[in-house]
Structures are given as structure tokens and as C-alpha cells.
Amino acid sequence: MAEEQMNFRKSIPAAIAAEMRLNPNIILLGEDVGAAGGVFKTSLGLFEEFGPERVLDTPISEQAIIGAAIGSAAQGLRPIAELMFADFAGVTFDQIANQLAKYRYMSAGQYKLPVTVRLANGVGGGFAAQHSQSAENWFLNIPGLKIVTPSTPNDMYGLLRSAIVDDNPVLVFEHKGLFNVKGDISNERIPLGVAQVVTRGTDLTIVATQLMRHRSVEAAEILNSRGISVEVIDPRTLVPFDDATIRESLSNTSRLLVVQEGPAGGSWGSDLITRTMSDSWSLFDAPPRLISSPSTPVPYAANLENAWLPSVDKIVHAATELTSY
Amino acid sequence: MANTISPLFGHNGAPLSESADTARATLAGMLAVRQFEEAVDSLFARGLMHGTMHLSIGQEASAIGACAALEQTDFITSTHRGHGHCIGKGADLTRMMAELLAKQTGYCRGRGGSMHIADASTGNLGANGIVAGGIPIAAGAALAQKMKGTDRVVMCFFGDGATNEGAFHEAVNLAAIWDLPVIFVCENNKYGMSFSTEKSMKVEHIADRAAAYGIPGITVEGNDADAVYAACNDAVLRARAGHGPTLVENITYRWKGHSKSDKNLYRTKEEIEDWKHKDPIVKFENRVIELGVLTREECDAIAADIREKIRASISEATTAPDSDPAELLASVYRAIEGGN
Ligand SMILES: Cc1ncc(C[n+]2csc(CCOP(=O)(O)OP(=O)(O)O)c2C)c(N)n1
Ligand SMILES: [Mg+2]
After folding, report:
1. Are residues A158 and A282 in the same domain?
2. What atom in ligand 1 is closest to the CA of residue B192?
3. Given CB atoms, is A78 within the 8 Å cutoff of chain B?
4. Is B85 in the pocket of ligand 1 (CB under 6 A)?
5. Residue A271 resides in a domain
6. A136 and A15 co-located in one domain
């Protein structure tokens, strides 16, 4: 299919529209998603194309948004619920953690829940502590949910389409720091649970998602120029997680660096390190490292926010240390 | 073999006590709830059932009278105190019992238990262990009906305590502004655990809260099956005609403790005894006998028949295979199961 250039922000309504055209049961609901086109302009044009019957503006009622998505999904619709800032998942945590994630299991498969929840996560320019979190980590301990964390316009587009057609609840995290990233779009679905090897290398494996993937690629270029060959892997989805691709890479590099936005505690990065250490201990020539944010809320001031995020320098430094073992 | 009490569906709006058929079905429904719960209470006391459970003994007219206003194809969402709703919507007593006994033949193959019985085949969207958790889901199920253009309605059960949760407010408002076909049935049994409605709210009636959403609200004598049915029937007709939700408040009382560990320290023996004199089953029986619709002997025969059904549910469920640990991973995600 023809490739076209598109930014991350526009790839979102493009993906939604592509699936909505194919299936009349798909609806979009959330705050300001209608004529306003979404707070982040990520539903622009959908209201015009699909009308108020399928693109529904809701009151400021996050529990009602997710609950309505659950109930309508159990009744045959394929709702896409937008929660605006991912941090607001806290307001409707029950509906996600106790209702959406468990409905199918508790009923022994009598109901299917093809719900897509879209959430804007991550640090993105001074939104501060309650509008910047890497909330994807909150949900790792809740079986029943799939978790998608795209980094490029093409991944955003393809993974969102797959999330919408998946018969399970899928949380799709749209990183605020990436909305203006441009790239080619191949107009195809990308299966959930398949990592992407972004750069090939032999000395060190770096695993990173979203904003940190981009910083890791930058770091890899610097490291390459210094003779250190880095393989950057973007898992793209946290659940399901493509462990096999990472294990294969480790069997060549023997060194693992995980780079993650957000504190280390109870995070996907810590999980990954625990898992690979216990499953693939013999592959390691050096202790694995996790670069994460400090254990503080996300600060407001630009300099503090910057310091909170793992930097390219930090990645280069840690990678250099690891390869000197 | 099915072991149900064949609920009333598609009734014409006349009082349930008026004809022999509807009187029989109503009495059978209420007795089934009562006897089912007495049976599980005893199984639990004898250590033959584990977990916890919430009994609705004393509240039977609410569940059965409300469900009588539905069609077979309509839906319900239920609560932790949900056995009555399940039975009212036509669930199989043996499969319910099997679920409580954690059997492979239970509605949820032992994954759900008392608080999570769901039955897609009778339109039961599921009970809920989270207070008010089912209310937004009911709004969603009703949204789907509206979008698909069906004339089905969703009856959403919850307690008085649930109306103090934010989810109640959000969901009722959403259903109101979108004119969704939901009937919000509040079973006001005067307590949320130990906390009485007098302490938990400033308004006298929960139905008063409907005004805040611009929908009708009605307070009903919840131990009178005829009264519950009449109010719910009006609300169902309204919802089906596309005029949106109604809040129906059934005033009732639970005889038993909140759950298995309640010592009733927050209420008096006199209060409990007082309400036992307002037994919804006795009330209905007396009425139909007085009206000459059923005889005492006929009423006794119905009770004996239900006793047989409950006995059968226990003996069949007890001998069924336990939940299968080999299936532990099934039904978390759809793909693992390969299709259902
Ligand atoms: C969100 C939530 N908070 C608290 C509880 C604990 N809890 C279980 S039942 C209950 C009381 C509910 O009262 P009400 O809604 O009146 O229903 P009733 O038990 O009287 O039928 C409480 C507090 C819970 N399950 N969920
Ligand atoms: Mg109560």
C-alpha cells in the first residue's frame, strides 16, 4: 500500500476512521471528542464523517464513559472510549480494573469486551504531576487488559487499528510528547505483541518505548560513532510482551539496558529485567540496568521536568559502562 | 434438565395478584428466592459452601415484582445481593447452586461465585462486587439497545448505599441526557452494611434524587409485589417508548445480616421483628387467598414444589465436578480460549 507522511497526532483519527468505515458497530465516546475534535485534536474530522450517533460527547464523567463502553460492548458494540489524560484513569480505576478487565473471566467467557480505551500519557511540556504520568504501569498487575504504547505515527496507526478490532479490552497510550513526530504510514494494522528491532547491533540491547525509544535511537547513533554497536528494541505493546525478540537479541549482545519514563517501582522495565534474569540468566555477561525516572511525581518546572526524564546523555553513559564489563 | 421457576414475561399490566397464573408465578418466584437463600445459608453454616454471600431474605417482592415487568429479551444488571434478580430473570437454580458450590457446571464455571453470577442466556449482564459498579454498565447496555434500534430495556438493580457513590450520579445523568432505556431500581433496605439511610443522606427518599437528573422518581412499598410491579411496569413502558430512564425506589428490609459476619450491632431486635411482620411472601399469599385467586392448599403446593426444586438443585450441584484447575487460564483473554 501507498505510504504517506503523517504526524502522530493525525494518525490517530486516521486509524479510527479506517476501522469505523469497516464496521458500523464501532463508536467513539468521551469528553470533547465530537465537534471539538478532542482536547488533543486526536478525533478531528470524525464527528463530521460519522455524526453524533457514532461520535458521542459525554459529560465530565469518566466512570460513566468506561461503564458505558463496557455495557455497550457486552451488547455487541465496539466502543472506543477516550479518557483524555491517562492520569484520569484514577477517577475510573474501578471501572477499568474491577469491571472491564475481569468481566470476561468472571463470566467464564460468556461476554466479550471489545473495548478500546485511549489515554494520553507521558511528559509533554509542563503539565505537571497530575497530567503527565506513565499510567500504563498502573495496569500491569491486572490480567485481562492489553496495553499498547506506540512510538511512531505508523505504530500508532497500525496498533490502534488492531486494538479496535481486538476482542479484548485494550488500553492505548498516546504519548503527549510525540504528537508532532512525523513519519511514513503504511495504512495497515500491526499485530499486538510483536516488538520492533529499530536498529541492529551486537554489543548491547536497549529496550525502550515511546519517548524513550526516540532518545535511545539518538543515543545509539552517538554510541555507534564511538564504536559501540547497539540494538534498540521497541516492544510496542507491554501486554502482550514480546519476550522472544529480546531474548534473541540478548543471545547476540549479552548486555541489557532498559530505558523507561516513570519511576522504577512496579514498572514494565523492572518486570522485564526480573523476567529475563530468571528465564535467561546464562545469556548475560553483565548485570542488566534500568534507567528510569526518580521516584517522585512529575515536576512542573521545565528544568525539573527535564531532569526527571532520562536523558540521551544518561543513556550513553550507562551503555558505555555496561559495555566495559 | 432445566430447573427454573418460569418467570412471568410480557404481562399486561394488571396486578400480579389478580389472576391465578400471575399469582402462582409471583409466589413461586418469591419462594424460590427465599428457599434458595435459606438453603445456601444452611450449607454455609455447615461448612459445605465457602466464601461469603449476601442474602436478600425479606426483600423478595422487590426482585420478583420488578423482573415481572420485563420481557424475556430484556436485560438486568445486579448486585452483591443478587440471587433474587437472577431467579427473577429466569436463571436455572441448579446452575446457580453449582456456581455457589464452585462447580464446573456453575454459570461461571466457579470463577464467579455468589457475587458474580452472569447469565447471557437470560439477559443477566452480571452481578457486581463493587457497590454501584453495575450502574454505568447498565447505561452502556442501554446505549447499545438505543443504537441498534431494539426495543429492549435494561433494569439496573442497586442498593440505597450505592446512591452515595459517584458512579450512580454519573451513570444516571448520562442515561437521562441520552434518554436511555434503563429502569434504575433502588432496593432501599435502610442500611448499607451498618450505616442507615437516615445517617447517609439528607433527603428523605432516594427517589427525590431523580429530580437532580430531570427524570421521574417514585417511592414504592417494596414488600408489596403488586406495587413494585406497577411502578416498574410504568417505568419499563416509558423506557421502551424512548422516553428515558426512571428511578424506582423499593422500600424494603433485609432480615439477615449484611453478609456472613454481621452481628447486627447497629439495629435493634425489635426493628428486625417488626419488619418480619411485613413479610412480602405472607403479604402476597394473604392477598391472593383473600381475593379467592388461590387457595391456601394451592399456595402450600407451590411451596412444596419449590422445596423439591431447591432440593434437586443441591443434590445435582453437589455431585457435579469441581471447577477444573486445568482451565485456570481460560477466559482471561479471548484468544487463549479460541473462540467463545
Ligand atoms: C466500592 C465499594 N465500597 C464498599 C464496598 C463494601 N460493601 C459491600 S456491600 C456494602 C453495602 C452496600 O449497601 P447497599 O448499596 O445499600 O446494598 P445492600 O448491601 O444494602 O443490599 C458495602 C459498603 C464495596 N463492595 N464496594
Ligand atoms: Mg442497603
Report:
1. no
2. 13
3. no
4. no
5. yes
6. yes
pLDDT along chain B (340 residues), means of 10: 88 97 98 98 94 94 98 97 98 97 94 93 96 96 97 98 96 98 98 93 96 98 98 98 98 95 91 98 98 98 98 98 88 64
A85 shares contact with chain B (CB less than 8 Å): no
Q: Report which residue type is found at A117.
A: V
Nearest CA in chain A to B167: A63
A167 and A228 together in one domain: no
Whether ligand 1 lies within 6 angstroms of the CB of B256 is answered as no
Q: B191 alpha carbon to ligand 1 midpoint, in Å?
A: 9
Q: What is the CATH number of domain B33-267+309-324?
A: 3.40.50.970
A25: cell is 458497530
Same domain for A140 and A15: yes
**Catalytic residue ranges of A:** 62, 131
Atom nearest to B165 CA in ligand 1: 1
Contact B194, B158 (CB under 8 A): no
| A190 found inside a domain | no
User: Which domain, by its residues, includes A297?
Assistant: 196-323
* SS3 (DSSP) at B169: helix
My answer on whether A13 and A157 are in the same domain is yes
Which residues in chain A come in under a pLDDT of 50?
1
Residue A191: inside a domain, yes or no?
Answer: no
Same domain, A164 and A256: no
- Count structural domains, chain A: 2
Terminal-to-terminal C-alpha distance of chain A: 46
Contact A149, A236 (CB under 8 A): yes
Q: Is B191 in the pocket of ligand 1 (CB under 6 A)?
A: yes
Q: What are A199's strand-pairing partners?
A: A232
- Cα-to-centroid distance, B185 and ligand 1 (Å): 16
A283: CATH: 3.40.50.920
Examine the domain organization and report whether A139 and A221 are in the same domain: no
Q: Are residues A134 and A205 in the same domain?
A: no
Half-sphere exposure of A11 (CA within 13 A, CB side): 32
Ligand 1 pocket member B107 (CB < 6 A):
no
The pTM score is 0.90
With a pLDDT cut of 90, the percent of chain B lying above it is: 90
The helix or strand, by DSSP H or E, that contains position B174, with its residue range, turns out to be: helix B166-177
Q: How far is A50 from chain B (nearest CA, A)?
A: 13
| β pairing state of A4-7 and A182-185 | antiparallel
- Which of B104, B331, B337 to mutate against chain A (most A CBs within 10 Å)? B331
Query: In angstroms, what is the span from residue B253 Cα to ligand 2's centroid?
Result: 8
Which residues of chain B neighbour A112 with C-beta distances below 8 Å?
334
pLDDT at res. A303 = 87
Q: Are B117 and B334 in contact (CB under 8 A)?
A: no
Query: Mutation test of the interface with chain B: which of A27, A56, A110, choosing the one with the most B Cβ atoms within 10 A?
Result: A110
